[in-house]
Amino acid sequence: MLFLALRSSQTLAICVALVSIISLSCVCQVSSTKISSHSYFNFDGSRTINIIDFGAVAGNIGADVVEGNVFAFNSALESAQPGDTVLIPRTNEGPFTMTGPIEGRGLVNISICIEGHIALDENLDSWPEIYHEQRVHWLLLENCTGIFLGGGGIIDGNGMQWWDAYITGVNKWVRHHRPKLIYITKSTAITVEHLTLRNSPSFHLQLDHCVDAEVRFVHIDVDRFKQRQLKAKKHAQSLVSAGINSHRAKTVTESFYVGTLPISMQQEYNSWHTNPGQWLVWLFDQVVKLIPRKLVLQPEDLNTDGIDVSGRNIYVHDCIVNNDDDSVVVKPSSGADLMSTCSQDMVFQNLMLTGFGASIGSVPPHADVNCVRNITFNNVTMPYTGKGIYVKSNPSCGQETDSHGTLTDKTAIIEGILFQDITIEKPSWWSIWIGPQQQHEPGSPLDEKCALSYPISPDCPTQGCVTFANITLRNVEVVEPLLSPGVVLGNSTNPMSNIIFDNVKVSQNAHHKSSFDWHPLRGKFPWGAKYRCQNSDLKVLDGSSPVPLCDMTEQD
User: Fold this and answer.
1) Which pLDDT does position 339 carry in this prediction?
2) Neighbour-count burial of 109, counting CB atoms closer than 10 A to its CB (0-12 exposed, 13-18 middle, 19+ buried)
3) Would you say 149 and 192 are in contact if contact means Cβ atoms under 8 Å apart?
4) For the chain, how big is the Rg over CA atoms in Å?
5) Would you state the pLDDT for residue 65?
6) Are 483 and 385 in contact (CB under 8 A)?
7) Count of CB atoms within 10 A of residue 90's CB?
8) Distance between CA 550 and CA 531 in Å, rounded?
9) Bridge-based pairing state of the strands 129-131 and 134-135
């Protein structure tokens, strides 16, 4: 496995150090066309252990088969010795259907080679429960060293049933208790490569408090059209309960989410609701989230994150993520974490992301100091994304007892972040957002949260207990944003320091009035073709347009 490491704090240039972490004795042959049917010994004495030899059956979704496949996979992992490979083979019969948990704890130098197709069981009730209705993740690797996970196969999370249960409220517990597809925690020397991950019920790939890890050639794909259909269904229900004709409610919401409103209804729909103010609030809630046809992305909390990482020395490259939440995101670590006291020294490069951005956070304050430091995003394209560059804190300043038993102020640090050679094409929400996380859902208490409808809803509290410092955007091109260029929101008691825009350009191409892409306010709502910037020491270098102008006087 190869790892790239450091960046000069003076030049902010990327330096790639290729360091050999571990040499695995058996690696998947992705290009092989052989259909494996038995376990066998390799020339070096290691074994390839086929789950079929433990009773796994492909192409059948019966309850007994599903349970047997879980047993077979876990039995193969339990029998593996250092240097061995556990094989999920290609078959002609169809996918291996499973639930979780597939668990590996304390594994050393093991390859998990998924050459075939795995499909997760769509029956929500078949998933085992950990505690308080939390469903087990499909693949859990904990306290492992030297793990290779790859093989060119497909893991289909079949998340539609989970999304539907959450969005429509059929099962209230589903919201925070859906399984993740792959969850690797407290592990070192990890390689994940050449996999296709689809439609996870929740996160697709999470490396939680891991050290020396590489993710490469992974393709993550979420059926966003299906999610739009489900959200249209939910909002149609809301309109019906507000007294709107069910057929018209269905037509309007589906038109917003998957197409355009019929001309015959354009004049009529403004008078449907007896309370125009409430109607406009609902309408903005939709407009800010739903753009017609392929541009539609919404910030409802489906949590279908692409790649989430925390820890140290992590390299993610040559991946494609098409989802409806954070595409790639760095989560914080704190002094209470044993693997790394700060999520740091990470590089993300050669990525194509369509979702809600190349993200940092959210980073809430913590008694042991939450931290994200020395992170580089390089050569990233984001076509038709929701958000682009997204660096976010979280509320809850105050005091708390730290891991040493001392009552102390909660704080957090976000520093040394570089976004370089980034292209954000036709984003349907904010191209650049540096500040508090937008997370407030309409109808729930705002409290200290930043409203999703900001600035229509003016409330967007910032956090003085979270430090933003040394964040550079270099060679960033934003093409045809729907909204104003971006937002940089610091706190008056702890302003952002050394925020640099170096050759950050926003452009709008000319469109004829008959073009689908034409609108007189495109790229100008809500602040014109300008940034919203407050309480930030922001430096602008030559080549940036428009130039952000920051207000340092506004109180939080």
Assistant:
1) 96
2) buried
3) yes
4) 24
5) 96
6) no
7) 18
8) 9
9) antiparallel
* Cα-Cα end-to-end distance for the chain: 47
Q: Return the residue matching tokens 């030899």.
A: 53
**What is the pLDDT at residue 288?**
40
In sequence order, the 6+-apart residues with CB closer than 8 A to the CB of 78 are none
> For residue 426, which of 330, 260, 284, 297 has the smallest C-alpha distance?
297
Quote the CA–CA distance of 302 and 176 in Å, as a whole number: 9
Helix (H) or strand (E) holding 287: helix 276-287
Check if the beta carbon of residue 272 is closer than 8 Å to that of residue 280. no
- Residues lower than pLDDT 50 in the chain: 1-26, 30-36, 258-299, 442, 512-514, 516, 555
Summarize pLDDT for 380-408 with one digit per residue, the tens. Answer: 999 999 899 999 999 999 999 999 999 99
What is the predicted pLDDT for the residue at 391?
98
Task: Using the structure block, give the residue that is written with the tokens 């609108």.
Answer: 519
Count of alpha carbons within 13 Å of 153, Cβ hemisphere only?
24
Please tell me the predicted confidence (pLDDT) of residue 167. Answer: 74
For 380-402, the three-class secondary structure string (H helix, E strand, C coil) is EEEECCCEEEEEEECCCCCEEEC
The pairing of strands 145-150 and 154-156 is unpaired
411 secondary structure, DSSP code: B
CB 472 within 8 A of CB 504: no
- In this prediction, residue 251 carries a pLDDT of 62
Identify any residues that bridge with 191 across adjacent strands, giving them in sequence order: 148, 214
Q: How far is CA 167 from CA 196, 232, 300, 451, in A?
A: 25, 10, 9, 20
CA atoms within 13 A on the CB side of 331: 17
Looking at residue 552, what is its pLDDT?
A: 78
Among 527, 67, 453, 513, which residue's Cα sits nearest to residue 284? Answer: 453
Query: Residue 448's pLDDT is what?
Result: 87
For the chain, give percent helix, strand, coil, nearest 5: 15, 40, 45
Q: 333 and 340 in contact (C-beta within 8 Å)?
A: yes
Cα-flanking dihedrals φ and ψ of residue 520, to 5°?
-65, -25
Closest CA to 426 of 389, 392, 387: 387
Side-chain half-sphere CA neighbours of 272 within 13 A: 23
Q: Report d(CA 503, CA 278) in Å as an integer.
A: 42
pLDDT at 542: 84
Q: Are 339 and 237 in contact (CB under 8 A)?
A: no
pTM: 0.86
